[in-house]
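Team,

Forwarding the record for the chain on the shared tracking sheet. I've put the sequence and predicted structure together so nobody has to dig through attachments.
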Amino acid sequence: MAAAGAVRVLPASPNWYSSRCSDASGDGRLFGFAARHRVCLLDVSAAAPAFYGELIGHTDRISGFAFCRCPGQSSLCASSSDDGSVRIWDTEALAPVGEYSLHQNAISALHWSPLVKDLIVSGDEKGVIVCYWHNRSDSQQFFPEPRNVFCLTCSPHNENLVAIGYKDGMVVIIDISRKREIIHRLRGHDDEIHCLVWCPVPGEERLPAWQDELQVPSEDGRVPNGEQDTATKKGCYLASGSKDQTIRIWSCTRGRSVMTLKLPPTKRRGGAVDPAVKERIWLTLHWPSGRSTEIVSSSFGGELLLWDLTQSGKRKWTLLGSSEGQNHSRIVFNLSSVKHQDKELLFSISMDRDVKCWDLSTLECSWTMPSLGGFVYSLAFSPVDTGCLAIGVGDSMIRVWNTLSMNNIYDVKTFWQSIKSKVTALAWHPTKEGCLAFGTDDGKVGIFDTFSTSAKNKPPQISSTYHKKTVYTLAWGPPTPPLSSGGEGEQPSVTLYSCAGEGIVFQHNPWKLNGEANDINKVIRDTNSIKHKLPAHTEISWKPDGKLLALGNEDGSIEIFQAPNLKLLCTIQQHHKLINAIRWHHEHGSQPELSCLIASGSINATIYVHNLKSVIESTSESPLTITEPFRTLAGHTAKITSLSWSPHHEGRLVSACYDGTAQVWDVMKEEPLCNYRGHEGRLLSVQWSPVDSDSVYTGADDFSVHKWHISKQEHTRPPQGKKSIELEKKRSMQPKVKSKKKKKPTEKSPAKQDLSDTMNGDESMKEILLEENGVLEHEGKKEAQETELPDKVSMTVSKDTSPSAYDHSSFSLPKPFVTQKATTVKKDPPKEKPAPDAFLKKRKPRSMLPFSTFMDHRAKDELYQDCLRLATCLKTKGDNEDVSPDLKDRIHLGLFADRASLHEMIDVEGKNHLENGHPELFQQLMLWKGDMKGVLQAAAERGELTDQLVAMSPMVGYQAWVWTVEAFAKQLCFQEQYVKAASHLLSIHKVYEAVELLKVNHFYREAIVIAKARLRPEDPILKDLYTSWAALLEKDGHYSMAAKCYLGASSPYDAVKVLAKKGDVTSLKTAAELALISGEEELSATLSFRCAQDLLLPRNWVGAQEVLQQHKSLFGQRLVFCLNELLCKCLSERSPCDRKSPVPPCYHSWELNREASFLDMVIEVWQNILGMDTTEQATCAREQLCSVEHPPSTSNTHPKQVLFHISHDLTLAALSYHIGTWDEAVKSILGAVTRSYDAGNFTLMQDICSIILPEGCDNLRHKLDSTNSQSMAASRSLEAFVAYGLLYDLWWNPLKDFLVLQKAVSEPALCPSELTAPEKTYISGQSSSEEICDQTAVAMDENLCNTTEVLQCEIKSDSRTSSVDLVDRQSKLSGCKVLLSEEIAALQNTQRDIAKVQEILADMIHQHQQQRNSLQENTNGSTQETNLQQSTETESDKPCADSSQVNCKEEVKEPITLPELTKQLLKAKQKLAEFPDNLKVFPFPDVLECCLVLLHLGSECPPELQEQALDLLRKHGSADTHQKAGRRFLT
């Protein structure tokens, strides 16, 4: 420990994004923080920090670190790592005292219980909490929540309470003494919990500012139920900091938040943050001991805030570090504190890589300790500003350390502007203060001014010439051509030379960095007349007097040139590997001849020193070659990376080496003087202190710079043998970090999103992280271009420089470098032993001839016997050529005998391969032998053909190839790889087979592509493919796809049919258009008409007309649709519907002539809009429509369809009217009226009569041809229906006086409900034409029961004289005379008789069938059933009024026999035949029904009509129904 105590160190940076990876010891002496996979300890007991030592042992990034806080154990601490382990350390001995790996997942949080001296609590990413008591090696696991643990902390007041914060913002408090109990779930944060701290003072004393989030206390200030008291005594507050930018204080007794602090938007010093960049935030907390009312938190951009919790309203906070530059410049991750006498010190670690110490009493920063985030590639002392050390680091930053500062031993300035890559080379200007040149990993060269006052923010000058690879070395030296050739005063006294990985040296003009740099190879070629290719340069060094330039090369040679024209003086051929370092001895010694010494180190471990005095003094014109060194310094065991001569001594040199040590040499005596082994990694740079002859500075890949004293080192020479191996072992613990190239060190943390946003010109984060991970990735200087070569590795292992160093055997030495290079490191690799097998596996393929190879590696005696046997056999063969040599069991000698023997050997080897399951090697052997046919047959039989075998098969011949491909296709079919099989069949031109194969397996799409591409267009197979696929698609309901197939097969008709199958409007429309395109006019018209009809359902007349207008043949239908639209419009205007339709009707905006009659209005629209100009058009349209016949309507027909059919009839009527054929017009109007009558829509019938014939039929009669009996009959029928409608109208709307009169009459009046009784009775026994009345009532939606009331209301409001009305009504009634036709009544009676007989016949047949069925089923008692059935049937045949059911039953007659029935039917049919035909053609309202209605009207009806009605009833009302209905009038 003594050595470390004297060492001054710039340590590696603390790890980022961990909730607790730094802590201070309980005794206040040490502060430790995790840096990569080690823990760095600082002694903070004095005013300035001192490096104390490191805890080494983890093999992956450390995620948590905590000291034991129990008295007497303050030297114990614990760390958790991504390698899955938790280690316990003793800081006195810097050694581990225990280790456990209980977590299955990455550990994300760790804390040492402040109350239980041996309890360590840790949590992992999956939510598992492990409690470990290390004194008794006991553990317990908890799983409170299946969430990612982010932080945890043990209570300082209750040993069983642990608070856990999760990634999603949940906070949980658990009691570890009760296994599954969660005390509280604290919800409030909505993002990562970064930190949890318990209040150092127990109890929950309420502060005045805290009342806002708790319930309001009662008058006396206490919370009810005594909650206040228990809380004050028992509980403890917990504070949490979250990524959601808030701090919450929680009460543990109440389990809720009592206060929320929101981070204030403080701007970080030195300029505002770019608003486009989402600012990073990490909110860590510290609750100062003994102060429950104050809390310290981190904020945006690195500020620290001290909050006063007693302030209400806007929370009061104070910024720590008032003066400029005291604060951190990036986010702070951890805060921890120690007590020193009376004051409390706070330590903070930050992303800016500084460790700061704060005095909480003054809120000022006491000291800052800088740290390094990458390899230390380069060290350089300023020749002007003594003691100013520049450090080039892999974290893309340069540190300039004033090592002589008195008041601050870590006085370090940082430069990062414009670097953005690892800093690999540095060089101070020899005379100009603060002028520092730097080179980077990406080939950039630039110059910083480190001296200017505003240097903090001043970017460097960058050379416009970039190297293609890593810059290895920079050197200031005198200008050489072309710069030196200019006139005086035009060029600088020194220029900057840079050498990089691509082997080129550039000369940059520091005055014009934006100008082109010169490649010095051009000067060298010109001066020395060199034609051959120059070696790649890897190192450059000017002699301090500027007269000689030494260039080190990749091939190990060193060339010495003379300034300024670079004449080659000599070549040193000593090293045989790449040169890493060259240094000239200084000139200010007492022995001037020493200034000609030049020391050089390479990838070889030996350092050579040459004396060039003779070369300088030589007058020889041609260059010399030196092959003997002046001195040889041997002892290191790995490559030399850097050298430095002591400026205080003569002939004293220090070297830095990959063996992890620095060595001081006495060059003249070739003696090692002192060896420094303090680094934990490979050394990359070394500098002798210019002010202290006993001090040396070294930089290594352990991310640190050490200043150490020569006089205090215990070792004198580099470690050899066992010691060297131990050193390697010590260092080999670090590769774990590096080998995970892909993994960011912050993978477990929220940093993932932050890694990429490289802080807008701030340090390039990516580089830093690569650096943090990839220790091996860039092995010091000079290695970029040859990281793949294994010779570096072998050199590390042994000094053997012969070519055999490549041999695998040299990899077996236990050197960690080998391990790193060769294997991807598993979870826990054996620490000493590398895995050479991995190398062999990777490099060595399986042997083709293992048997023979094995036979040739037997014992010596056996091999000698082989020679003798072979000689004997060959001699026999020589004597007798026909005999094949008999090698007996030594088949492997076939290699040296004739072909037959070789074939035997190949057969044995092949059999061997097959037995060992390597058919591919057997096949290759057979290919060598030339026996491919056998291989193919064997593979085909076993179903083991491969693409490779098929590819080789043509060498056997065309037939064999075809056969193999067919066999392979079959094999592929078994494996269900049909498409691949088809492709192979195509390769042998079997197109039809390929297509058929695909078709059979339903790969229609692929089959069509092949057929279309490879066959003639007229080939029938194409059509077959299309139609088969279409049929399949049609079956699955993919109609549009099937239609495309039919089109492809040139069957547009089928395409149309399949499209129309779905039957919706869009499909029909598309199908119609498709038919039109394909020339299927008729089909198109049919589909268009169907589509138009479908559009009628949602009342879209506009759409329907659009569809129809494409076809001339549908002109008649267009007229129908037009009339339908106008008719619907009229009907809706007459009786507006109350119900709102979901889809509003889509009418045309036609101008209508409302003055004209309906038919005239329609014809006008036809002429103006649809263009029906001529009589011919009208006639043609009429013919079109006459050819269409609609089925008769029934009560089941859809109302819209009824209306459409009526429109069709009316269109015919309008056309006939337009042409002037009135006879036809009347028939069509009658058709429309009777259709509505048949459909049972009485109101519609009345509406149509009044719309078409508003004046009645009087003016029609004289227009007709009176000689035409048919048209006259039609006219009479039409008049009858008009009168029929009128009759019911008069009956349903009686006069007021008449009603009163009826009531006055002593005879009981029939109320309307009674009135309908005879009508209903009468209807129930009649055919469909008589069912109408009842349905009419329903259709009109008018309940007859309450007609009286409605009428009474209407009558009250009617002020006209009733006598006038009565006269008017009677004249209307006399118009109903047309209904009382004697002959029609007789005709209807006969029709009724026939219907009745037919009904009885049907019943008999039905009964007979039932009887037969029941006989078959069960013969017992069936007759009784039949009788019963007969009687019930007979009863039901005679419907009767409820009142007279008893009488009906008495009147049941005996069943009529079949002959009688036939007789009756015949008689009735003869009677029917006697009636004239014109009576039977047109329908007529039921005459007897009309008689009954007229009689019901009573005194309103003229007497002569009453007489006539009674007469007709007596004559023809023989049916029971009529008798019952008319009983009242007839008796």
